[in-house]
Amino acid sequence: MPLPPPARKPRADAERNRARILEVARHVFTRDGADATLDDIARESKLGPGTLYRHFPTRDALVEAVYRDEVERLAAAGERFAATRAPLDALRAWMLLFIDHVAGKKLILAAMDTVPGGSARLIEGARSITLLVFHTLFERAVEAGALRRDVDPDDFIRAFIGVFHTTAVPGWEASARRIVDILIAGSRPTLGP
Fold it and tell me: How far apart are CA 52 and CA 15, in angstroms?
């Protein structure tokens, strides 16, 4: 039985167009929420509607792609931080970036809620990716001796995730950033009695 032909890599201009659509869609969904239309996105991306629909045949497909792209960027940042920073600094930088991700996601939730299955389905799909990144960075910090071995990573992440229950409160982001530093300080090894 012959093998199917290998999938062709998209042309460079098609990749650029897709990236442009995602970037503009992220901006428009953040600005307009559920009222954002594909026509608005096509117009602001300065690409024709046909180009947009070739990449994303439905609004739901575009909303999902924007969110998936955000999660992939967050995961890539974790990998980049792990490769270029000291373990504890990498963990802290990623946690602060995660706060920014949640703040931005809060603005796009209205658009996400129009997708069948709603934002809960999209968020749940991203959960395993973000938990893997967190656990990898956390374990690196423990192995480097920057965090105590007796600190349970699940307790640490539960305490961190708790800050996201206050996103309706003005100033929650500044508070969340302070809590990251409190969690890290409380988890550092002590230097004797």
Answer: 12
* DSSP 8-state symbol, 86: -
Looking at the chain, the domain(s) classified CATH 1.10.10.60 span: 11-57
Among 60-69, 94-103, 131-140, the minimum mean pLDDT is found in 60-69
Residue 43 pLDDT more than 80?
yes
Domain with CATH 1.10.357.10 in the chain: 67-187
Half-sphere exposure of 124 (CA within 13 A, CB side): 5
CATH topology of domain 11-57: Arc Repressor Mutant, subunit A (1.10.10)
pLDDT for residue 77 is more than 80: yes
Domain boundaries 67-187, corresponding CATH code:
1.10.357.10
Distances (CA, A) of 134 to 5, 72, 95, 115, 126: 38, 14, 8, 27, 12
How remote is the C-alpha of 139 from its chain's centroid?
A: 20
Which has the closest alpha carbon to 63: 106, 33, 43, 19? 33
DSSP state of 85: S
